[in-house]
Amino acid sequence: MGVKKVLLILAFLGFLYLDGLPLCTASVVHNYTYVLKETNFTRLCSTKSMLTVDGQFPGPVLRVQKGDTAFVTVQNNGKYGVTIHWHGVKQPRNPWSDGPENITQCPIKPGKKFTYEVVFSNEEGTLWWHAHSDWSRATVHGAIVISPKNGTSYPFPKPYAEEVIILAEWYKGDVKEIIDEATATGADPNVSDAFTLNGQPGYPNNCSIATTYRLRVIQGKTYLLRLIHAGMNEEMFFAIAHHKLTVVAQDASYLKPINTSYVMISPGQTMDILVTANQSPSHYYIAARPFFDSNAPYDNSTTTAILQYVGNYTPPSSPSFPTLPKITSKSAADNFTTRLRALASKDHPISVPTGVDERIFITVSVNQLTCDKAVCGGPNNSILAASLNNISFSTPKIDILQAYYRNLSNVYESNFPNRPPFLFNFTGDSNDNLLLPSTGTKAKIIEYGKRVEIVFQGTSIGNPENHPMHLHGFSFYLLGTGYGNFNKTTSPKTYNLIDPPEVNTFGVPKSGWATIRFVANNPGVWYMHCHLERHASWGMDTVIIVKNGTTSATSIRPPPANLPTCS
Fold first, then answer.
1. b/e map of 21-49 (b: 16 or more CB within 10 Å)?
2. Name one GO cellular component term (predicted).
3. How many structural domains compose the chain?
């Protein structure tokens, strides 16, 4: 493969306009080549061919420093079109390289290539990249490690070593065939057959013990674990037997340290975790299993790795296993997520908008559409769907960014509403009359520089569950969450405006609400969707378009010359 990293120091000082503040920067350029290709892998006693980058699962690590730029040339030697998304990278003024298929670009066709310009700004810590076409991200994903700039350091003692830990899901079948079949029939797609930790299912999964991933540590040393949830449809509890975890960052933004015995992490999220090897030399299980509080189908299996101390000792016949919360333990999930607070220090400040120019209220629902054929696979002969503000998103054939930039008609509508079409008891009413959404390709237009607040309201329609929502092009402040219906008078009184976490992916609680706030200072077309892949496939998506500002420095950059063509 060509993870060819060429470091070219740009001998200039520039000013990056970010969050309204000019930051003096010296930029470094990295060049990578990623080759998409089919590769055979054996897991759970069977072998299959699957799409990978450079024949690796997980894929290669992209390493940069804060403020760098990476040019990544993706050569598609696979069988179908694919795009790559750089999850959590804001890409200032550069939506052309953001990646979601038919939102900001059309797919890279087999035999073709495209060079992404990945522009890093104030991100520092752990992010990740993944395919953004159908369900191909199940096998096409990898870590992004963003180190502090030269002359700066972590806001905690430098660890002895770092290790990337990626949680993912394993399907014995072909993931594209699985979602294509579900889409054709309107049924729920098959659940995964196992979870993986750094590509291996581990104990207690069939044919997996010998290949279990091992993290080797030296007694007395502290390690930085860069934990990434690349899984498709389940949130996860994660723990290490007899070892405390200290969470110091989420989504490449630093947190006030959280000491805990476990974490709960949603698909799309990343966490930086310190762990000290302070136990007797031995083997200890690292384990992850779902948090799932819904009636929908899910994979209830466990994935493991082994924390293995270096040295001379007799390893145990059966390593110690961590105590993980029950799969349905909402209280355990809440006890972790409600502790997240931004570090908000002098060296890592935050800037929470105190006023609001644009208020948006979005209902988040699982729905059903009327069957359009003789037999459909959803409940009561329906087609499973999902929606935001009762609109199930229809992905266009031409990417929305190109249509917006070139003023092409009949691709999308610019009338995504600021509130649902009608009000009801969102978390108490599951009347079948509420199941049927409208369909369309609607975008929300926001003026540059506006201070935006979005309240996401879960509903009891269909199978309610937690929804990890992700907005491209921004990180934002998670001001608060709660259960029941959002109350515009009392709920804002619970907001944290002092040190809310700055994130790019957050959970809307089952039958509850979550509020985010940000400044719309990144012009472009930005995808917003649930990061449970089946919900995104069903239409739990929309697009936010931030208009240009008044200067060229606050406007979308011109498109690259080699954009993939649409057909």
1. eeeebbbbebbbbbbbbeeebebbeeebe
2. apoplast
3. 3
Distance (Å, rounded) from C-alpha 308 to C-alpha 147?
Answer: 26
Question: By three-state DSSP, how is residue 184 classified?
Answer: helix
Q: Which residues, listed in sequence order, are joined to residue 74 by a DSSP beta bridge? A: 34, 114
| DSSP annotation of 433 | G
Go through 356-371 and write b for each residue having 16 or more CB atoms within 10 A of its CB, e for each that does not: eeeebbbbbbbbbbeb
Spatial distance between the Cα atoms of 79 and 102, rounded to a whole number of angstroms: 18
CA distance 217 to 286: 13
Joined tokens for residue 251 = 């989504």
Give CA separation, 537 vs 366, 386, 466, in Å: 11, 8, 16
Diameter over CA atoms, the chain? 70
% the chain with pLDDT above 70 = 95
- Together in a domain, 183 and 323: yes
Compute the C-alpha angle 97/83/387, nearest 5°: 95
Q: What is the pLDDT of residues 259-286, one digit of tens each?
A: 999 999 999 999 999 999 999 999 999 9
Q: Quick one: 459 and 532 in the same domain?
A: yes
Global model pTM greater than 0.70 = yes
Number of helices (H) and strands (E) in the chain: give both, helices first: 4, 35
Residues in the chain: 567
Q: What share of the chain is helix, strand, coil (3-state, %, to 5)?
A: 10, 40, 50
Domain that holds residue 456: 358-554
Query: pLDDT band for position 26 (50/70/90)?
Result: low
* Pure H helices in 373-529: 400-405
Within this chain, do residues 399 and 329 fall inside the same structural domain, yes or no? no
Of 49, 122, 119, 114, the residue nearest 81 (C-alpha): 114
Residues 145 and 195 in one domain: no
Taken in order 383, 388, 390, 394, the sign of the CA dihedral is negative
Cβ atoms of residues 202 and 209 within 8 Å? yes
Residue type, 169: E
Residue whose token pair is 């629902």: 365
| Contact between 496 and 330 (Cβ < 8 Å) | no
- Give the DSSP letter of residue 96: G
E runs forming strands in 296-450: 303-309, 358-370, 382-388, 391-393, 438-440, 443-446
- 551: tokens are 């200067």
The CATH number for 32's domain is: 2.60.40.420
Sign of CA dihedral 502, 5, 169, 100: positive
Is residue 357 within 8 Å of residue 450, measured between CB atoms? Answer: yes
Nearest alpha-carbon partner for 232 in 148, 140, 313, 357: 140
Q: How far apart are CA 338 and CA 191, in angstroms?
A: 29
